[in-house]
Amino acid sequence: MSDTRRRVKVYTLNEERQWEDRGTGHVCCSEADSLTVTGEADGSLLLESRISPDTAYQKQQDTLIVWSEAENCDLALSFQEKAGCDEIWEKICQVQGKDPSVEITQDPVDESEEERFEDTPESAQLLELPPCEPERLEELAELVTSVLPSPVRRERLALALLSSGYIRKLLQLFRASEEAGDRRGLQQLYQIVRGLLFLNKATLFEVMFSDDCIMDVVGCLEYEPALLQPKSHREFLTQTARFREVIPITDSELRQKIHQTYRVQYIQDIILPTQSVFEDNFLSTLSSFIFFNKVEIVSMLQEDEKFLTEVFAQLTDEATEDSKRRELVNFFKEFCAFSQTLQPQNRDAFFKTLANLGILPALEIVMGMEDVQVKAAATDIFSYLVEFSPSMVREFVMQEPQQADDVSITHTHTHTRVWTSVTTPYVRCGMKSVCCVQDVLLINVVIKQMICDSDPELGGAVQLMGLLRTLIDPENMLAPASKAEKSEFLSFFYKYCMHVLTAPLLANTAEEDPDLSEGAARVNPVCPDNFQTAQLLALILELLTFCVEHHSYHIKSYIMTRDLLRRVLTLMNSRHSFLALCALRFMRRIIGLKDEYYNRYIVKGNLFEPVINALLDNGTRYNLLNSAIIELFEFIRVEDIRSLTAHIVDNFTTALESIEYVQTFKGLKQRYEQEKERQSRGFSRYRRDTRSFEEDEDTWLNEDEEEDEVPDTGLDKCKSDYGKFMESEKVKESQDKENQAKRKFSFCHSAGAANTANGSRPPPSTSSSRAAAPPSGQTARTGLVDYPDDEDEEDEEEDAEEEQAPHKRPRLGS
Predict the structure, then answer these.
(1) Which residue range forms the structural domain that includes residue 8?
(2) Residue 403 lies in a domain
(3) Is 790 exposed, middle or buried, given 0-12, 13-18 or 19+ CB atoms closer than 10 A?
(4) Are residues 58 and 155 in the same domain?
(5) What pLDDT, in 10s, does the model give residues 94-136?
(6) pTM of the model
(7) Where is the composition biased (Basic and acidic residues) (predicted)?
(8) Distance (Å, rounded) from C-alpha 91 to C-alpha 239?
């Protein structure tokens, strides 16, 4: 059926007293006196309801019909046109034998209560309203208060008020009382108007909230008897609160609906007292009134494509003034907030409309601007979009490189300011602020805004980090229609965006370059003590830890090829405990995977050294850092990770042997010795050739390097823009290979300090005992792998160890 008069939306009231949209279709009344709604999309049956002679049907706002079919089943039909509502209402009244001029067909109570009410002698007097005069206000106030407990009395009082035009007479009396300064009369009017709201009748609300009445209603509610002075709600609504039209709204009905909704929302949220649990149902119709108004506003704006197209055009126009652009962004923020009242089907259509009009490219521009308010509002809009459909956002950002040339030409001017603000903190690290194509990618703009958050508490950065986490979460990439989405998007993210995310981390953990000439700027290998920077690095580490847990292949390649864990563990030196714990948590997640490639990487790099140094630095303090480090080693012991156990026992036993307040390190040594004993008896389960393992690892990493070497001038340019971190790493690695025999790692504290009885530690000095560790790139023979062809080499190493043994013992400083 294509007749728009019969086009309706079907709503049901859920347990939270919120209306849920069940779909849009066309209604008809069958010969069997049943209301049937057929879905316009697929022809499915949305509603079939028999018109019962005893059911109370209520007509609201000219286009709504509401009724209850069971104790907890409230239904509503919202008509597109008033004519269709009137037609169905006449048929309902015809079935029930009612006059179509009434707004409700039955009293919404059981028969026994109605009979008791009709038998009451005072019933006729209750329906008779006193004259609208100042002397009779007290009597009217008592009448309104007395009917609130009874649904029947509330309904009959509402009918009496409407039939005589009593509400407008009351508001005229209010104006006269206010001019005369009759404070007692004004306080009685407050009680009366408040009681009228609690009658919970939509027909009354339509009169009270009309343009010519609503401000007088607000005026009556200013004179609360408990207050010494009246409130100034009308002054706020007329002078302080200003209606700003970013684009002139020509539809007068839409303008009126916006004003009405704002004022009614103000009455509910600000003027009326907080409802108790016993009063929740008193204002349910008021909430429904606001809800349907918002639905109508969003629908009217959404259907006006000319209006939205003009808004987007001005938003993205570089000639638009900053103040105007701020208003446009705030409009969209409010628009998206209104859309949250829509049900899923309508909300999907709403956001698809915005996407088709270009909301994401527009956000890409405004999020890169310097105006703090604009960026904050744009972030809120972006959060609505990500919450609605992460896949839609991912699809957009993956298409951006295909249009990179056009985007960079169009938006270079806008994003140059962002780029400068991002790179400024890292100029000391040799970075250059040269704009490249990838700077205009939406995710990179989001990451840069997170990095450059000016809030000392990084409130905006925390919000953006959560959005990034949602976008890179594989759990919401499992839709059957997009099976390739996970691999494609993660490859895109690690190719174009990961280096932007890790830039602050790499910049603040850069090691000192020994080749720098005298007087040249040197970078502190320890992260700075700035609290805001530490918070930012903690956020980045939290996101990287999430990647370790959920992106097995991509993050593994990234960590190993860039030696990222070594840089992260530099943060164990931070004076901010939360940052040191974030670095430790990152390593703990890696070890928790029990991936032998990761384990091999940790052993080759001797990456336990900064962790054990932090444990010894902590001394006898019993705190979270101490517990977290102990838990890390306990996990290795319980899970029997042999390669790590052998590395720890071989290289750090001397430093840790005196820590006796836990049995973790003794347990590690016992496991190591038990495995050696099993090997000596020929029961070793470690028979794989180490060289074949190394060959597998080199092959795996070489494959990753081949993928990374895909020609991409934009990526190379971006890497150089953030600094020559990778080049310096390659230089450092080549130097490490040449000087492997010369490198020595040592600890800064005596291991005996961990168990000093009085809790004191000797001050650090050059004579403090240190435990030697193998250089990076070399691993000590663990004894867990027994190879027949390595006996000669093992004998030579045992002789060397006997010669070096005295140097491994810790010497307490005098």
Answers:
(1) 4-96
(2) no
(3) middle
(4) no
(5) 888 887 777 777 654 444 444 444 444 334 444 588 899 999 9
(6) 0.64
(7) 714-741
(8) 47
